[in-house]
Amino acid sequence: MGSVISIRGLEKHFGRTVALDGLDLEVASGEIHGFLGPNGAGKSTTIRILLGLARASGGEARLFDRDPWRDAAELHRRVAYVPGDVSLWPNLSGGEAIDLLSRLRGGTADRAVYAERKARLVEAFQLDPRKKGRAYSKGNRQKVALVAAFATPAELYILDEPTSGLDPLMEQVFNREIARAAAGGATVLLSSHILSEVEALCDRVSIIRAGRRVETGTLADLRHLTRSSVAFAHVPGQESAVESLDGAHDVVVSAGRVQFTADSDRVAALLPELGRLGVEGLTVAPPSLEELFLRHYGDDPAMADAPPSAPTTGAGAPR
Amino acid sequence: MGLLLPLLAQRARRDRLQLALWIVGTAGLALMATAAVGSTFGDETEREAILRLTIVAPAILIFRGTPNGAGEGEFAVFLILAFLALLAGLMSTFLAVRHTRGDEEQSRAELVAATPAARTLPTVATVVHGVLANLLLAIAVAGAFMASGLDASGSAVAGIAVGATGVAFLAIGLVAAQLFRTSRSANALSVSLVLAAYLVRGLGDALGEASDDGLVRTAAWPSWLSPIGWAQRTEPFAANDLAPLLLSVGLAAVLIGLVFMFQSARDSGASLLPGRAGRATAGPMLRGNVGLAWRLNVGAIASWAVGAVLAGALATTLTPLVDQIGTDAPAIADTLRQVAGPSASLEEAFTVTFFSMVGILAAAAALQAVMRARQEEAHGSAEPVLAAPVPRRAWLGGYALVGALAIVLILVLAAGGALLGSLAADDPAASAENALKSALAQAPAALVFLGLGLLVFVLAPRLTIPVGWALLAAGAFFGIFGEILGLPDWVHDLSPFAHAPLPVGGEVDWTGGFWMLGVSAAAVALAVAAMGRRELTTDG
């Protein structure tokens, strides 16, 4: 079980703009790896380097332990790719585009098997393959790229925001296809903004920001980094009592309620204390990944750059 | 009015460069043609001789106009008016489709339609914008005629005739935009209609009745079917009659009325004709990256090929005319010899001149294949191909191959056209051999442009399209017109077309051809090799 993708200290400059600034990324064989980060963080640049469409300015990127720039064509026999913004040939129908890409990838060697797979996917994604590329909506262009990607089995699927533009029903179809590919032992690098998708599919995630990785681990690991949020109806004076409790942070009063965050392993110990205060309308929300993401997506670098092991700054505190 | 102005301003802002180029280019052509009347076509006696030639070979009228006398103004109109009207038509239909169907297809129209401007006002703005553009064009063309010292009233009539033709085609473009779902289809229809109008009028002119002295010709009825024919009927500098233009304006009014009727009856984004469905599965040609490059270029190659066949056929069809030129119009004969070299017989010179044009067509088709590669790269559709097991070098190599194939096809088809035309000649075998050699002689020069285009694509991808066309325009201009214009030899020699072997006077010196073959092979190899080291450059 070696690494399928191994990136160390990857750098990419466009003139003076630094797109990647020492990125590390490790994706093990057989895992579904969530690749997250705000717009402009460098996700697509990383993917383009992995596909040999762009060349690294520094650092090292390895795909199946080979150079993605030099050995691009050979590596691509093992890779399926769905771009974030699918651009189709205006005068080719969707069906022709799918066939062309499948032929290029060598997926049509066994015609019957290919035809069966294509028919199943076209049906599942409810795609009309006879329309010309120009006539498809964004969601339908995305479906053409997805059908082309899944119609030829690959060892590695590189998917750049593959569900943008798809409706929830189609997202489910997509999730099923990913599960099917993963069950067959494939590795998936999934760039996404959609939290539910990541939570449903990914074994591990890496969050990047400004061209660097700021967080990586399993979802359980990451959940540990966040706190539960607790709130109750405000009675004057109580907020100071809460502030003195061990494990309670960032106490604020807002909209008639006292709100604070608590270390997740301290919640149970805090409840009797709150009982003693006689609070009313108590709510406790479990730790959410959203909070973690928002912290990294936020525009205050000091906040995001805080070492993940010591979350001392107020996560999700109102600004 | 308050809502119309911002829409108009947006159109003017978006088109400022494009329309400026169209208008300045068209007026510039008018200026060159009127200036050429004195310099290239000699004095009035020679011009009369040329006009009389058209009795022998009326086919020449297809690309000129109806003769209305040998005066400088009348002769300038005979040379260029139909072509100016053609350009006005193209400018106007592209404008109409760009601001209506083009915006609708890209969903930009939706953004505007959701404001109080609603669905109809943007079309009104496009009509006003188009009419204003044609007004400017009319003024510019009239100015160009006057700048050559022609009288003001005739110049004004010529300008107005060109502008009115533009307005008629503006309306035709607007109707086409209502009919189709994509701007590509709408442009295809309206461009074919503009070209059809040009050819129908040419047919009418050629079939027309010549006056006894052979200097004036009354076009036959087909010319009345064409807005370009109506423009010619104004007979600038002769009759100066604006009445035929009522037809253009009337047609425009009726069609624009129809456009608003259509538009109020359909949904935004919908079209009157349903979009055509494509194939559900790819055919056997669409097998790899070369098949894709071919498929993406075949339409453009076909249209260049049509031009090549016509040029080839004309080269030999008009041969009977050639002997008469020698005796009746020595100025033209000199011009032809300057292109083909002093040792050429007049007939050979004539064929070579036509095949220089074919060489330009072939080079254009090859450059367009390179430009297609650039468009694929810029629009992102090259990405999925390169993410499949297709090496970057092979990807570019596919476009180079298609470009070379385009050159061969176009030259062969032009030679085929010449062969058909030569059946009527006195000595068909000699005429055909001359045509084949002339076609072959153009291949190296066209290949040099393919190589240069590929090099630009690899070294400065963003410049591929503008530099590609500029190279071709400069090469064509200096190579073919350089000597006529009396430019220094070294300028002339910069152009590959200047080194094309000239199959004249029995012995052919192919040295220049072999040199150019070597140069282009090296350029193509270098470009393809360099592609292995170059990243994709996606943004515009």
UniProtKB/TrEMBL annotation, chain A:
GO-annotated cellular components: plasma membrane
GO biological process: response to antibiotic
Membrane topology per record: Peripheral membrane protein
Predominant location: membrane
Annotated Pfam families: ABC_tran
Domain ABC transporter: 5-235
Keywords, in A-Z order: Antibiotic resistance, ATP-binding, Nucleotide-binding, Transport
Location within or outside the cell: Cell membrane
GO molecular function: ATP binding; ATP hydrolysis activity
InterPro entries: AAA+_ATPase (IPR003593), ABC_transporter-like_ATP-bd (IPR003439), ABC_transporter-like_CS (IPR017871), ABC_transporter_ATP-binding (IPR050763), P-loop_NTPase (IPR027417)
UniProt similarity note: Belongs to the ABC transporter superfamily.
Entry-linked PANTHER family: ABC TRANSPORTER ATP-BINDING PROTEIN, ABC TRANSPORTER ATP-BINDING PROTEIN NATA
UniProt-recorded name of the protein: ATP-binding cassette domain-containing protein
Organism in which the protein naturally occurs: Agromyces kandeliae
TrEMBL record, chain B:
Keywords recorded for this protein, A-Z: Membrane, Transmembrane, Transmembrane helix
Coiled-coil stretches noted in the UniProt entry, renumbered to this chain: none
Transmembrane segments: 20-42, 49-65, 77-97, 127-150, 156-179, 186-204, 242-262, 294-315, 349-370, 399-420, 440-460, 467-487, 512-532
Record has Membrane as a keyword: yes
Top-level taxon of origin: Bacteria
The protein's name in its UniProt record: Polyketide antibiotic transporter
